[in-house]
Write a structure and sequence with these properties.
globular; OB fold (Dihydrolipoamide Acetyltransferase, E2P); six-stranded mixed sheet; Rossmann fold; binds S-adenosylmethionine; 9 helices
Length: about 450
């Protein structure tokens, strides 16, 4: 039987595929069904048909899986922020491990590496230290809002999956700690009442673009970063005053300005409106200053688990030289510094390198240095082959030129930290020519999403 677009099919979900969708087979033909889990029996409507698979949405849940739980968030099922709230947490972390195993087996053809059980997140709600809320002049209505008088021309919140311009007016997000949601609410009312309009993600006109909130777990302090399309100090000044009155825990108010059309909350220019230019956080014994646009692991408690695993896999004795590729604000370099002779960190973002240098001084560390630039160019400037490489690339993994350079350099061991098992597996296709993948430790940094962080230990054959 072949399925057709718009057809309603009755089927049993037998697995959850990488990417988070339930998988059902209809006469051997794969159908991916959003918001389902193993054991669900559903009537699903086919929305896309390709040669080898189809995609469907649930029309009716005929028999719920025992792996389902009641999602506490009212936006669950509509919001792109977390799509797995309806799955029992123990199952979420089991699925994450399986996805690492599957990616390595199917993409890299590696089936002999030890993949440990996923280390769970200490907190499964309120764990995110950074949230980015988008502004839009197209509000996505929740079912109970349809046909009401709701103002559809303003939204501040998270995106509906698969859309770039439709945004939920998120009243509260359970992934951020309080008073994040109170700050969100206050900023929403301020923007809505402002004389400047909200940005249209299609028209590319308007002023208010994003609200980014950062929380310091160590100090329980906050950074508020409003992203606007141009500079208008009179428009933002009253907001700064309101924040100062209501939220003494906000220690930094920043205005990033961007005229770029891309939906990225990073400004070409940054104005410090009040307080400190950075947020001070800490992981374990170390203090870290984080600028608005620098990368910092979004689950601070999970970051400690991650870095402890990196240190365990690095197994340094104090005499080694280490190169830390994609070093961000220098967190891993600092974590390993007391166990190594010297560490060189390579990073693209200028503010992150500046933060890394300051973070070393603040933590009394003098055996780390950092090189600013694209690793494709800067890796060649490393004076000697290090004893070990730490590689922690963004989701897209390593650039192929960087993989080639790493293979040319061929240090004795590598600790590869990955936030995407598919690109870890893709990079392993080349790296396995000279490295054996000894073990992988998945670490859950992102409960209720299908994302998983993992640390891989590679040893030169
Ligand atoms: C996943 S983060 C890792 C940061 C750090 N290891 C940590 O744990 O906080 C990836 C980092 O790679 C940087 N990056 C992305 N592309 C890069 C490139 N081509 N060259 C150098 N750094 C890059 C990003 O700015 C980001 O800081």
């Amino acid at each position: 039987m072949s399925v057709k677009k718009k057809q309603i099919v009755e089927c049993e979900v037998t697995d959850v595929a990488f990417g988070g969708k339930g998988l059902a087979k209809i006469d051997g033909f794969a159908v991916f069904i959003d918001q389902t889990v193993t054991g669900d029996r559903v009537a699903a409507r086919i929305v896309r048909k390709k040669r080898n698979y189809a995609e469907a949405v649930v029309q009716e849940l005929l028999r719920p899986s025992p792996l389902r739980v009641t999602a506490p968030c009212p936006y669950s099922g509509y919001c792109g922020g977390c799509k797995w709230q309806f799955i029992d947490y123990a199952e979420q972390i089991a699925l994450k491990r399986q996805h690492v195993v599957d990616c390595l087996a199917h993409i890299a053809l590696i089936d002999d590496a030890t993949v440990h059980e996923t280390i769970p997140s200490e907190r499964i709600f309120g764990y995110r230290n950074k949230m980015e809320f988008s502004c839009s002049d197209r509000r996505w209505l929740m079912p109970h809002e349809l046909g009401t008088e709701t103002d559809m021309g303003f939204a501040l919140g998270l995106h509906v999956p698969g859309t770039f311009h439709k945004v939920l007016d998120t009243r509260a997000c359970l992934l951020q700690p309080e008073p994040g949601n109170q700050i969100l609410d206050m900023v929403r009312e301020f923007m809505r009442a402002s004389r400047r309009p909200v940005y249209g993600l299609r028209s590319h006109e308007g002023f208010w673009r994003f609200l980014m909130l950062r929380h310091s777990v160590a100090k329980d302090q906050w950074m508020v970063n409003v992203v606007t399309s141009e500079e208008d100090r009179d428009a933002v000044a009253p907001l700064v005053e309101m924040i100062g009155h209501r939220f003494p825990q906000v220690t930094s108010v920043i205005n990033n300005i961007t005229a770029r059309k891309s939906g990225v909350a990073i400004g070409e220019r940054e104005i410090l409106l009040a307080g400190e230019p950075v947020l001070r956080d800490g992981i374990g014994p170390y203090a870290f200053d984080v600028s608005a646009n620098s990368f910092f692991q979004t689950n601070t408690r999970g970051a400690k688990t991650l870095y402890d695993t990196v240190a365990q896999y690095a197994d340094l004795d104090g005499n080694e030289s280490v190169v830390d590729l994609y070093c961000g604000t220098g967190t891993i370099a600092i974590w390993l510094a007391s166990h190594a002779r010297e560490i060189i960190g390579l990073e693209l973002v200028e503010s992150a390198v500046a933060d890394a240098r300051k973070n070393c001084i603040a933590n009394g560390i003098d055996n780390c240095r950092f090189i600013l630039g694209d690793i494709k160019e800067t890796l060649a400037s490393i004076p000697a082959v290090p004893d070990m490489l730490v590689i922690d690339p963004p989701r897209i993994g390593m650039h192929k030129d960087v993989v080639t350079q790493v293979l040319g350099m061929a240090p004795p061991s590598i600790v590869y930290v990955s936030c995407n098992p598919a690109t870890l597996a893709r990079d392993m296709i080349s790296l396995k020519e000279i490295y054996a993948l000894k073990e992988v430790q998945p670490v859950d940094m992102f409960p209720h999403t299908f994302h998983v962080e993992s640390v891989a230990r590679l040893v030169k054959r």
